[in-house]
Amino acid sequence: MVQKAIQMNEGRTRVEMVAATIKQRIAGRSLTPGARLPSVRGLAATLKLSTSTVVDAYERLVAEGVILARPGSGFYVANQAAPFALAQSGPKLDRAVDPFWISRQSLEADETDLKPGCGWLPPSWLPGEGMRRGLRTLARGDGPALADYGSPLGLPQLRQLISRRMGERGIEASPEQIMLADSGTQAIDLLCRFLLEPGDTVLVDDPCYFNFHALLRAHRAKIVGVPYTPSGPDIELFAQVVAEERPRLYITNSAIHNPTGATLSPVTAHRLLKLADQFDLTIIEDDIFADFEYSPAPRLAAFDGLERVIHIGSFSKTLSASARCGFVVAKPEWIDGLTDLKIATSFGGGRLTAELVLNVLSDGSYRKHMETLRHRLSRAMSEVSARLKGLGITPWLEPQAGMFLWCQLPEGIDAADVARAALERRIVLAPGNAFSLSQSATNFMRFNVSQTLDPRVFEVLGDALAGRG
C-alpha cells in the first residue's frame, strides 16, 4: 500500500514522497499515536529506495514533531497526532471525482450557477407557501415549541404520523419504534456509532450514494462494494462477498436507488433477506426518496418485519433542506439504545423543525404538492433524457420515478474531464467515480433532471464532449 502511494506522488523528491506517505497514513489512522514505524532498512527494502532516503524522511518528520525517535528502539508516531482527515483516509482520487468536491461545489455554488450534479430540487419546486404557512402557525403558538428542547425520541404526533405512513408501505411499526433525527445522514451516523467498531466490514452498492463512502470512512469501517443491477445488487456476487467478508452491515436504497434510479425486485429482496439471516447481516434501508414513487416498490423492512432491517427516511428532499428532519425505524430494543446515543451526541431533538414538518404534512397541501411534483419530475425526466441522448449520452435505464438519471458518456470520454470543463463555466456536474468504490464508472455521470433543464447545461456538455470546453 505504501509502495502504491509513493508511486502516485509524482513531482516530489523521494524524501518528500516518503514523508508525505507516512503523514497520510497517520492522518487516516492506519498509523495511530504510539505506533512503531517500519524500520529504516525494512521500509527502504519495501519501497526499493536507499536507506539514506528513508532516514532523511524520518528525520524530517521528527523535526516537524510528527514522529519520535527512540534510540535503540526505532521511530514512533507522536502522541499529538494530526486530526483525522477524511479526504486522506480513502483512495487518493482525482479531486474532480472526490465526493467532497461534488458536495462542496454544490453547496457553495452561487445562485446563478447551475447544479445538474446536486442531489436536491430547486427551491421553486418545493412547497414554499406551505412552509411559510407552517412558520406563521408556529410563531403564533405557545413558548415550548419555540424555546424548549424536544424529547430524545422526537415529537410524538410526528412519530404517529410517520407510523401511519409506514403502514401504507407495508411496514408495521408503532410510534415507539420510531426515533426522529436531524436528517437521514444523522440517522445513518447514529446507526454506525451504535452498530460498528473500527475495522468492521460494511457492504455498499457499486455505485451508491457517495456520502455513504465518506460517512463509513469517518467510522473507520472497511468498505466493500457489490455491483448494482437494474433489479438490485448482483445477488450471486453479493452471496460470495457476504460469505468471504462476513460484513456487519449492508447499506442500500430499495426504492429509488441513488444514483441509478433502479428499483429492487421482489425476487432479489427475498434472496437478500435469506442471505442476511444466514450470515447474521444487518441491513440499513435508506428510503429518503419514498414520496417520489407513483406506487410503492418492495421494501426490505416490510418483508423482514424489522428483524434484520433498519429503515430510515427524511423530509429534506420533498419539503426543505433547511428544515432538516429524518427518522429511524427499528426494533424496540435498538430504538432504546439509539435514544441514549442521541442524548449523548445531540441531547434533545430539534423540536421546532419537527413541529414545522408536522404542520406542513398535516394541513392537506402536502399530498397535492407531491402529486404535482411527481408529474413535473416525470416530464423533466423525459425531456432531459431525450436531450442527453441527442448528445450521445445514454441513460443506464429509464427510472420509474425520482430525479436521477445515471448515464454513460460516449466511449473514451472521462466524466472527470467533462466536470472540470463544466466547472470553469459555472456548472457543477457529478462524475461517476464519485459513486463507485471500485472506480469503475469513469465514463458515467449522474444527472438531477430537475436541475438539468437550462439550455446552457446541454451547450456546455456538447462543447466538453467535442473537446471545446
UniProtKB/TrEMBL annotation:
InterPro entries: Aminotransferase_I/II_large, HTH_trans_reg/aminotransferase, PyrdxlP-dep_Trfase, PyrdxlP-dep_Trfase_major, PyrdxlP-dep_Trfase_small, Tscrpt_reg_HTH_GntR, WH-like_DNA-bd_sf, WH_DNA-bd_sf. Pfam families: Aminotran_1_2, GntR. GO terms for molecular function: transaminase activity. The keyword Flavoprotein does not apply. Keywords: Aminotransferase, DNA-binding, Pyridoxal phosphate, Transcription, Transcription regulation, Transferase. SUPFAM superfamilies: PLP-dependent transferases (SSF53383), Winged helix' DNA-binding domain (SSF46785). Residues 12-80 form the HTH gntR-type domain. Signal peptide: none annotated. In the C-terminal section; belongs to the class-I pyridoxal-phosphate-dependent aminotransferase family. This is PLP-dependent aminotransferase family protein. It comes from Rhizobium anhuiense.
